[in-house]
Amino acid sequence: MAVLRDESLETVADTAGLKTVWFCTEGSTRAGIQEYLTLLSETDQTVIVSYFLNTGPGPVLPQVLPAGTRTTIDVNAVVGPEVDVSVKIVGQNDFFVERPMYFNRSIGAAGPVNGGHDTQCLHS
After folding, report:
1. 61: pLDDT confidence band, cut at 50, 70 and 90?
2. What band does 7 get if pLDDT is binned at 50, 70 and 90?
3. Which of 9, 44, 69, 80 is in the most buried spot, having the most CB atoms within 10 Å?
4. How confident is the model at residue 1 (pLDDT cuts 50, 70, 90)?
5. Closest to 63 in 3D by CA, of 26, 22, 10, 28
6. Which residues does 36 contact at the CB level (< 8 Å), separation at least 6?
7. Count of CB atoms situated within 10 Å of the CB of 47
8. Which among 97, 50, 89, 42 is positioned nearest to 66, based on CA atoms?
């Protein structure tokens, strides 16, 4: 196990789970939904984050990952409101990605929902 720390949080990632290509699907920035990406690398590197929107191709942006420090991307701030979004992230060295989402809205037959969800993205 590799223990990677920042000043406010200790994160433990199984190094077997570290990869160089990650996919985060079925995200959203619709009203009442906040989406983040959290990334962690054992080495200093710059990854490329490609956003795919329901409205067409989104931004392709570099993101610096300092070694041993959690980096958070506010997806809502990057792609704007009211879109469905998937993400591909590619690095030169192994790293780890999760997608926390928080929501406070009415969702179909479920009605009002207030909560959150965190998932490890898929890797290749």
Report:
1. very high
2. very low
3. 69
4. very low
5. 22
6. 72, 73, 74, 75, 99, 100, 101
7. 22
8. 42
Owner of token pair 């420090």:
69
**Bridge partners, residue 118, by sequence:** 100
What's at 81, amino acid-wise?
P
Closest CA to 121 of 19, 34, 6: 19
Hey, what are 24's tokens?
């985060």
CA distance 95 to 15: 9
pLDDT higher than threshold 60 for residue 2: no
Q: Is the dihedral of CA 2, 10, 26, 77 positive or negative?
A: negative
Average pLDDT, the chain: 88
CATH of domain 2-123: 2.60.290.11
Is residue 82 within 8 Å of 32, Cβ to Cβ?
no
Q: Give this prediction's pTM.
A: 0.83
